[in-house]
Amino acid sequence: MKKIVFLAAGLWCSSAAFCQQTISGKIKGGNGKIIYLYDDNDNRAEDSLLLKADEAFSLKVKSAGKAVFALILQGNDQPMLFTSGKENIQVTSDAATFPVAQSFKGDEDARAMQAYQQAFQPLIAQAQALNAEAHTINGEDEAAKNAFRKKAVSFGNQVTKTGVAFVQQHPHNIASIWLMLNELRNRVDPQQMEQLFTSLDKPIQSSKYGEAISQYLQAARLNGINVEAEDFTQNDVNGKPVSLKSFRGKYVLVDFWASWCGPCRQENPNVVAAYQKYKDKNFTVLGISLDKDKTPWTKAIAHDGLTWTQVSDLKGWSNAVAVQYGIQSIPANMLIGPDGKIVARNLRGEALNAKLEELLIQ
């Protein structure tokens, strides 16, 4: 699960002052709350305002260049996304249902991004429900775990299908490359990602988002299928160093996750099921956590029944192995063969089981 990152892309006006775009509107029930216009690339608000009853707000995009920005309402963890452009944006919403917009006016790209977000709202609600359900499942209840596993796989497929469709339908929109970077990168394989990338308009490919995707694709080629995986060493929960090469001779699923990552916790039952089914057939799992705090990490290991080796340097997104392998969002994984070469990447749900069955069931 990647933190929301909004990067400013290539300039298309001669000065920031000339390019300033206004975001204005009203939010019913927002009295006394602060609304922020946010560009997370600099970890700062572009503009903010204390809302007053029945009064309109007006905020300015101060960064030049096409990018994806967000309106964030105090007390609400979901942003309202939009693409910057030459045309000002007008929006009305309700604090109770934010970030759903009751009305939205902007240029074609901004409207397309808003339509995508509106269509995505049911999936967000589904993700929240799955996160809550994941914490209630008894580790010994196989029926409940199997039912949850099917829900999680279905959810992941819907997210991927929705995102890919948007990119294919909007090759000219900066939002497409943003979605590839933040939603699709670890949901589709590098080959499909490259196909999507080359289908985009050249200015979109050369944006800052596009540069990040290019770096990802380059790393994927270096660490691609049938390429020998680079060795690494990190400490396990007891402080003992564990190296990747120590697993040579086995199929090992290198699984990047974190205790705070909802989609990771949703996927864990699938990994547990695969481990239990194939652990006696020359297969194991090596978990790499992007946690910063040992306590929630070890609690999640126990709660989710992750009985395989777990390592971490407790540096969050700066985890050395995650950086080494270009991991930008989680969950993510790679299946490495007995010869140390990468067999597959980002296998989830039934895809993981199918691949292991193909390799291990003779």
UniProtKB/TrEMBL annotation:
GO terms for molecular function: antioxidant activity; oxidoreductase activity. It holds the Pfam family AhpC-TSA. Residues 223-362 form the Thioredoxin domain. Keywords: Cytochrome c-type biogenesis, Disulfide bond, Redox-active center, Signal. It is found in: Cell envelope. The keyword tRNA-binding does not apply. The keyword DNA repair does not apply. Residues 1-19 form the signal peptide. Its main location: other. It comes from the Bacteria. SUPFAM superfamilies: Thioredoxin-like (SSF52833). GO terms for biological process: cytochrome complex assembly. GO terms for cellular component: cell envelope. This is Peroxiredoxin.
